[in-house]
Amino acid sequence: MSYTQRDPDNPPDYYYTLNSKQQHNWMRTAKKMKKNEDLKLKYPPFNTTSNINIIHLHYLTDIQVVNELITKAKSTKTYTIDTEDNKDKNMNQGALIQIQMVHSNINSTIVLIETDYLPDRNTILFKQIGEFCSIVLNNDNKILSWGPLNKEFEHFQHLELIYLGNKNKKLNLQSLFRDWHNGNKAHPSMEKRENITGSVSLLDDTPGEFDFDDGGMDNDNGEKINYNNQYNCGHHTHFNMGATWSLQDAIVSALKKLVDKTLTVSLWQCGLDLVLNTWKNNWFSGKHYNEHHEQEHRFKMTKYAVTDCTAVTDLYFHMYPDQIINEISDMTPIIRSTTDVKIKLEDELSDISEDELIQILKPHFNKPQTNTQHLNNETTELITQTTQEEMNQFNMNEDQPVQQQQPPPLSKSEKQRIKNMKLKWKRKHHLEFQHKIKRPIYHRYDYRKIRTQLTDDNIHTSHQTTINRHKGEVIIGFKSEYEQQQAKTKMKINCFSKDQYYKRWGNLKEKK
User: Fold this and answer.
1) CA-to-CA dists, residue 51 to 109, 159, 174, 233, 332, angstroms
2) What is the pLDDT of residues 317-357, one digit of tens each?
3) What's the CATH fold of domain 430-510?
4) Domain 51-176+258-361: which CATH class?
5) Of the residues 74, 120, 236, 421, which has the maximum number of CB atoms within 10 A of its CB?
């Protein structure tokens, strides 16, 4: 059952088979999603007023794109940072880093670092991505976040990519919003707050936190205190000094818009950039692969990731309008969108070829034009005399085609090294290497016989088959979990045994 379909007032039958902790988590999630759906009916969706350009960073990113980002980062002084984690049963692991480069209050570049698809750490591309992150975090910049910045990066330390230096101005807008909100609301005397008792849960934007009933609490005398009347606002931060505002609540309160949190818990390791071609595998389609659904879901996740940054930035300018003037830059961003964004997600995707899609998503750069300005309306005139010999030389040069310098060809060892790096990454991340079945194998089987036998049994594999003669076993890969489960029902434990071999490939009289 999906989160949006959970009804806390009418849980399904399997709810009663869960243990107490599982029931608590189920009910907590159900209440949060119900609240999200209720807010959708009351408020319009949040859409930033900024022009947003999106750049994905991963092992397929052109290094020139990263170099352009480094150049731009050196002149950008305000950033908003957010992260997304993969939710595992035992632990969380970082999957996505969102960095909004705030060029002005109306122009931004958002960099999405897909950490599950980074290049090898020994490559120049990885080092350039690391340099970009270093400039962002350690260049006396102003960094906005919703919550402590070190908490955002606690699940990314294994990357050896993020180092939080002291040369930046970290602004936790979540803590600043409380004082700003209280100062902008006409609140009466707070003398009764010390009388408030009871347990109050915290609300933030991390999934799996408690919801809070705004209806008020009882004091020591058993009197019901209605904070909607006392403070003109029923948020629990008015009487619990340890409580915090969620980003969703803050945007609703300040901007009267809704940040939809439906996709908070998602498979962020799926590969958002369509150039990665992960949409060709079944991540979100269910039992039957649907190309349209795979691409559309990634667009929605990208929009969600971008909104988590732009909502914080827009709220910051709303809280501190004087900063708008201070941070407007005269320079126009040189990076165009890789996904044609001001983000407006359409319900239907056009049917385009894979080559067209990759070309559309490829980053492009505008070189800044040099404008010559004449002060005081004075006319400037330059008079030169050109000889006939110079004119002939000029015409000769103009007729000659421009020779572009070609990079030196790669050596055989360099080509093999690149090939090995790609294979190493593929074995770690690609789905064709994630779903496997292991079976014992008779020593006379070879790859041709295995593939033929699987084809005869109508078993579809990823063609990733490995025979381990030392252990006497074969490992067969599958493109999806669905195909793996289908194969398990057909591949018995003895499917590559000695009897099966002679039954399919040899005469029983040949047995030794």
Assistant:
1) 8, 31, 24, 33, 11
2) 999 988 874 444 444 444 444 444 444 444 444 444 545 54
3) Alpha-Beta Plaits (3.30.70)
4) alpha beta
5) 236
